[in-house]
Amino acid sequence: MSVEYAIIIKNKTRLESLIERFNTKAQAKFYIERQGGDFNDYESEHETFYHSLHLLQTQLTNVIKHKIVERAYVPSFIFSPKNMIIVIGQDGLVANTAKYANNIPIVAVNPDKKRYDGILLPFDTSNFIGGVEKVIANKNSSKIMQFAEAKLNDGQRLLAFNDLFIGASSHISARYKISYNNDTEEQSSSGLIISTQAGTTGWLSSIFNMAYGVTGAFEKNPKHKMVKVNSGELLFVVREPFQSIRTQTDINIGIINDHKSLTIESLMPTGGVIFSDGIESDFLKFNSGMIATIGISRETANLVTNT
């Protein structure tokens, strides 16, 4: 099916969010500078982003019809097979969008290379139009990414491009029963992170950074090495498991694949949640009686590559 429309996905800049909070730019500036912050950084980020967005739209005008959809509306937006998606923003915006894209090609554009790592952003405003033209001609190369899936026993499900979080909605300990690789135990922890291959450079990496930091305080030159997650696999880590009379800590990390499954039964009367890719507002309630089965979803993300 031919592509007829490009949907540009963007998010508010930090400056725009501040102005919403304080009503005017002047009041936002007063607040940040009073707290000792650098308001110029907010302004610079904002100006660089909108300069990139302007360049993107100017080039698109000569190639394909397009419109902008804000990140907040992506979960309810109905993408058509005749659409292509252009994400301009941080890496996380690609992850947040991909879950709702229904495998539609995504051209991901880095608007500020001095600010964003761009691990999921292979294009910038100088070369993205080539990717767009290849998608229109159906000659693009793509990287197909798999989602993690949390499926509840009542039929609800949630996808994650980078990672799932299962735990308590606040900073209290999460209580649950975990079953993995034919072993089961009751646990109390700060929750679980389940990471996809794409997510290993995100939240999961911070957990390993912490672990190596603690190790380094007591050992000289510990080897800092990330666990590799292959295609068709997920990696789960239990954050800060607590040993007690009732709770154990033997199940704390593992690979999930076709042969090894992970099941979590909530023991939390209230406040249990499952959310994905750092978006706490997009969540499933995970209270007592709920059982989550974690695996790899049939859906995939179609990320256009710069080749």
Strand and helix map with partners:
Layout: E1 5-10, H1 14-22, H2 25-34, H3 39-61, E2 65-70, E3 83-88, H4 91-98, E4 106-109, H5 128-136, E5 142-152, E6 157-160, E7 163-168, E8 174-180, E9 183-189, E10 192-195, H6 203-216, E11 234-238, E12 253-256, E13 262-266, E14 272-276, E15 279-285, E16 291-304
Parallel strand pairs: 1-2, 1-3, 3-4
Antiparallel strand pairs: 5-6, 5-16, 7-10, 7-14, 8-9, 8-13, 10-11, 11-12, 13-16, 14-15
Helix pairs in contact: 1-2
Question: Could you characterize what this model shows?
Answer:
This protein is α+β, with helices and mostly antiparallel strands and 307 residues long. Helix content is 24%, strand content 33%. It is built from six helices and 16 strands. The chain has helices at residues 14-22, 25-34, 39-61, 91-98, 128-136, 203-216, and strands at residues 5-10, 65-70, 83-88, 106-109, 142-152, 157-160, 163-168, 174-180, 183-189, 192-195, 234-238, 253-256, 262-266, 272-276, 279-285, 291-304. It has a six-stranded antiparallel β-sheet, covered by helices on one side. A six-stranded antiparallel β-sheet has the order 12-11-10-7-14-15, covered by helices on one side. It has a four-stranded parallel β-sheet with strand order 2-1-3-4, with helices on both faces. A hairpin with a 2-residue loop joins β8 and β9. α1 crosses α2 (25-34). The radius of gyration is 21 Å and the shape is globular. The model has no long low-confidence stretch (mean pLDDT 92).
Low-confidence stretches: none
* Cα shape: globular
- Strand elements, count: 16
Q: What is the helix tally?
A: 6
Radius of gyration: 21 Å
Distance between the termini: 22 Å
Helix content: 10-25%
* Largest sheet: spatial strand order: 6-5-16-13-8-9
The major sheet is characterized as: 6 strands, antiparallel
Tell me the fraction of residues in β-strands, as a range.
Answer: 25-35%
Alpha-beta classification:
alpha+beta
The H/E string reads: EHHHEEHEHEEEEEEHEEEEEE
Q: Output mean pLDDT.
A: 92
Quaternary form: single chain
